[in-house]
Amino acid sequence: MKKINAVTVASTLAMAFSTTLAAVSPATAETCDAQETFGVIIHGGTAKAGNVPEARLSFMREILTDARADLKRGAEALDVVEALVATMEDSGLFNAGKAAINNAGGFVETDASIMDGKTMKAGSVASLKLVRNPIRAARLVMDETRHVMMVGDRGEAAVNDLGAEKVTADYFVNNAHHDEPEKHGTVGAAVLDRCGNLAAGTSTGGYDAKIPGRVGDSPVIGAGTYAKNGIMAASATGHGEFFIRFTATRAIAARMEYGNASVTDAAQATIDEMAAAGEDGAGRGGLIAIDTEGNFAMPFSSDGMVRGIASNTQAPVAGAFDEME
Fold first, then answer.
1. Rounded to a whole number, what is the largest CA-CA distance in the chain?
2. Among candidates 174, 209, 206, which has minimal Cα distance to 92?
3. Sheet containing 187-192, strands listed edge to edge, beginning at the edge strand earlier in sequence
4. Which end of the chain is flanked by fewer CB atoms within 10 Å, N or C?
5. How far apart are CA 54 and CA 290, in angstroms?
6. What does pLDDT average to in each consecutive run of 10 residues of the chain (325 residues)?
7. Which residues are known to be catalytic?
8. Cβ contact 227:115 at 8 Å
9. Cα-Cα-Cα-Cα dihedral of 251, 76, 121, 130, to 10°?
């Protein structure tokens, strides 16, 4: 049964998402022989057995509805990725942005990355303390600098100078020093637009009670995020150390590009490889991906993964375990 307050929040933020895309798309729309096919897949982290995160699922269906409409109108993949992830960061429902988990020092450090499959350009940020939307900061790094990654206090100062929105420490709900902070999941999105362009992005508050300064896979291109036109776009969630070691999202693309694997088989093989290497569940997690033909992959080795999809032929659906609705 849906929670009324969750639906209200979702509707409000979905309206903001739609407004953002409507403002961005006409100015940046690419001239192309538009295809009918488009698709979007998002995730909200892993899920534990027996715990159906209905508030997050309802929210994801709402924002997928708006993303689907914008893609149909011709929005670009990169803009849709940024808007989706930023909206999830703002929601307070995930371990990203507003509800990022505290580290072992009792404060928030956030990471994010974004990649454009058309140009192979990418931007990422790590260990930010007071930036509202790390995904927007990552986009600024990609668009406004000659670099890919900016980190720590000096990186934060740089993205602030570029226009990243600052917040105070009390903006983050888990900085209120609750006895048991909310432990929702990393967020990510992968999109195919009507011009055939692919893009992906990921954002997180990181591992629960991580050592201050720890950086996981989310801001690492080829580990937590990867996109390449003609192949696929992907985002990851799970034990970041393993996703880095196995270059998880790049491994999907390599299996497809050099081994002629389908996106489904490539993503599953990557998840299986990490799960087999980790002891006591350390290598578990999930991946979302979409290929250049609009096929989706969403394998996970954890109990579940909060995820949702929409396309030109598929109305928005979301789920945490086997079923999606």
1. 55
2. 174
3. 149-151, 122-128, 110-116, 198-204, 187-192, 39-47, 304-311, 317-319
4. N
5. 24
6. 32 41 44 93 93 93 98 98 98 96 93 98 98 98 98 98 97 68 81 98 92 96 98 96 97 98 98 91 92 98 96 97 92
7. 186
8. yes
9. -100
